């Protein structure tokens, strides 16, 4: 059987995914996580005298802690299959990718397993973030002279 | 009001990426990388700062804020030290996120075993 023919048949028998429903679930779950972030900032600001900028640092730390812990306990992956992008696009997805890589490669040793694979998934985010920030920063600095 | 704006903004970004994920061959890794670049791009003209003013914490949660914080710290240092400041200040604001993620994932990887 030719490859293109096979692909056509495979496409026809692929499980029908409900794209509209997926998008709405991602919207609601992502929105709730965003609201949680803002809520944590407001709670911290209300009960202490630190500034909003500092409070947002604590908020990011708390979200990363929750995401790492739930990945290590094993129920984050179930949430990912249910909520998809709603939970992968916020900072929780970044923490999840690092913790799951660390857990998966730990048995291959501390150096060539854990050490060299911990950034396996999160590395692309850091790489392209730094390269693009450097590029746009140079443009902004040369044209506008800094912020 | 900020809570509502956070819900709309963060949900909107997640919805867009879910639509892209469902209708193309890109993986979540591609999409997060694209969003980081988009965040850096938006902040190079201070648009993301305006979004944070309107939306509040909801704009700090999606991965786009990672690109925003990278370029924001770089430009702040560049004001002080000239062009070399872009390299000096790159990780100023994101240091918390990256360090926290590294430490938590290392500690949890040492304590817990993968559940498969």
Task: Report the uncertain regions of chain A.
Answer: none
Question: Which two chains have the most extensive interface, and how many residues on each?
Answer: A-B, 75 and 72 residues
The low-pLDDT segments of chain B are none
* Class by alpha and beta content of chain A: mainly alpha
Q: Helices and strands of chain B, in N-to-C order?
A: HHHHHH
Strand content of chain A: under 5%
In one word, what is the shape of chain A?
extended
Oligomerization status of the protein chains: heterodimer
Q: What is the C-alpha radius of gyration of chain B, as a whole number of Å? A: 17 Å
User: Approximately what portion of the residues of chain B adopt beta-strand conformation?
Assistant: under 5%
> Percentage of helical residues of chain A?
over 70%
Number of helices, where a helix is a run of at least 4 consecutive DSSP H or I residues of chain A: 8
Distance between the termini of chain A: 60 Å
Q: State Rg of chain A.
A: 20 Å
Q: Roughly what percent helix of chain B?
A: over 70%
Number of domains of chain B: 1
Describe the 3D structure:
The complex is a heterodimer of chains A (147) and B (116). In chain A, helix 2 crosses helix 3 and helix 6 (91-105) runs antiparallel to helix 7 (110-117). By secondary structure, chain A is mostly helical. Helix content of chain A is 80%, strand content 0%. Chain A has a domain at 20-117. Chain A is extended. Chain B has helices spanning 2-23, 28-43, 47-55, 64-81, 85-88, 95-111. Chain B has one domain (2-111). Chain B contains 6 helices and no strands. Chain B starts with a helix and ends in a 5-residue tail after the last helix. With 116 residues, chain B is an all-alpha fold.
């Amino acid at each position: 059987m030719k490859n293109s023919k096979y692909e056509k048949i495979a496409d026809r028998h692929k499980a029908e995914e409900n794209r509209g429903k997926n998008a709405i679930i991602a919207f609601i779950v992502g929105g709730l996580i965003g609201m949680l972030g803002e809520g944590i900032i407001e709670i911290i600001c209300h009960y202490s005298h630190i500034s909003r900028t500092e409070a947002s640092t604590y908020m990011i730390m708390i979200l990363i802690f929750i995401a790492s812990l739930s990945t290590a306990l094993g129920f984050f992956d179930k949430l990912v299959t249910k909520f998809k992008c709603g939970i992968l696009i916020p900072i929780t997805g970044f923490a999840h990718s690092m913790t799951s890589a660390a857990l998966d490669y730990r048995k291959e040793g501390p150096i060539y397993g854990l050490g060299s694979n911990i950034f396996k998934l999160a590395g692309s985010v850091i790489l392209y973030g730094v390269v693009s920030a450097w590029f746009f920063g140079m443009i902004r600095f040369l044209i506008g002279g800094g912020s | 009001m900020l809570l509502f704006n956070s819900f709309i903004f963060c949900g909107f970004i997640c919805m867009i990426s879910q639509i892209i994920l469902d209708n193309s061959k890109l993986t979540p890794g591609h999409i997060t990388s694209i969003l980081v670049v988009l965040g850096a791009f938006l902040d190079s003209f201070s648009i993301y700062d305006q979004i944070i003013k309107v939306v509040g914490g909801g704009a700090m949660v999606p991965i786009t804020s990672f690109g925003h914080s990278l370029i924001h710290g770089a430009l702040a240092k560049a004001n002080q030290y000239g062009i070399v400041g872009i390299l000096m200040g790159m990780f100023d604001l994101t240091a918390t996120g990256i360090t926290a993620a590294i430490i938590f994932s290392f500690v949890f990887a040492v304590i817990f075993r993968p559940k498969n």
